[in-house]
């Protein structure tokens, strides 16, 4: 938990409802983590980030509407303190350079999602407690 005693807040965005729901369920079971919103596409992400100011945004690279990469670029430009992580079913090396170019804080493979999320959330909680 952060200095203010609040959870690390997360917005989950994926075009597939089943994946979104599973991610939210998994994340909400982690102590000190709270999913505050879900989004289906990049336009929803931008609106919800503006209104809710989550600590972390987890984006599927293949979001409908605005791609995850384009959404990450806009979110990082407008809300620089929000951490943005892209998730992909494909080899993350395919998107790594593009993710860095748009300002994303990282990219993770959906096949390694639970392990990767646990690590990045521990880091976020540690940073928030400083």
Which helices and strands, and how do they pair?
Elements: E1 8-13, H1 17-28, E2 33-39, H2 42-52, E3 56-60, H3 68-78, E4 83-88, H4 93-102, E5 106-109, H5 113-128
Parallel strand pairs: 1-2, 1-3, 3-4, 4-5
Task: Sum up the structure in keywords.
five-stranded parallel sheet; 5 strands; Rossmann fold; alpha/beta; 5 helices; single chain; 130 residues
What does this structure look like?
With 130 residues, the protein is of the alpha/beta class. The protein has a single domain (8-123), classed as 3-Layer(aba) Sandwich (Rossmann fold), CATH 3.40.50.2300. Helices cover 46% and strands 22% of the residues. The protein is built from 5 helices and 5 strands; from the N terminus they run E-H-E-H-E-H-E-H-E-H. The chain has helices spanning 17-28, 42-52, 68-78, 93-102, 113-128, and strands at residues 8-13, 33-39, 56-60, 83-88, 106-109. It has a 5-stranded parallel beta sheet with strand order 2-1-3-4-5, with helices on both faces. Strand 4 (83-88), helix 4 (93-102) and strand 5 (106-109) form a beta-alpha-beta unit. Helix 2 packs parallel to helix 3 (68-78) and helix 3 (68-78) packs parallel to helix 4. The radius of gyration is 13 Å and the shape is globular. The model has no long low-confidence stretch (mean pLDDT 84).
Short summary:
This protein has helices spanning 17-28, 42-52, 68-78, 93-102, 113-128, and strands at 8-13, 33-39, 56-60, 83-88, 106-109. The protein is an alpha/beta fold and 130 residues long.
